[in-house]
Amino acid sequence: MNSPTRTGSARPIAARFSVLGSMALLAASVILSTASAQTNPGLTGDPCVSPAMIPPMVREGNSVRVGPSARLVSQSAGARENERGVALTQAPDTLRTLEEAHHWFEKAARKGYAPAQVNLAVLSLAGWGTPTNAGAALYWLREAARRGYALAYFDLGILYLRGCGVRQDDHQALSWFERGANAGDSLAQLNLGYLYDQGLGVAQDRTQAALWYRKAAESAVAQAQYNLADLYAHGDGVPLDEGLAFAWYQKAALQGHTGARVMLGSMYASGRGTEKDLPSAYAWLFAAALQGDNRGSTTLQALERQLPPDQLTQSKMRAQSLAHSPNPANPSELAFLH
Question: Which one, out of 81, 84, 177, 321, has a CA that is 20 to 30 A from the CA of 59?
Answer without folding.
Answer: 177
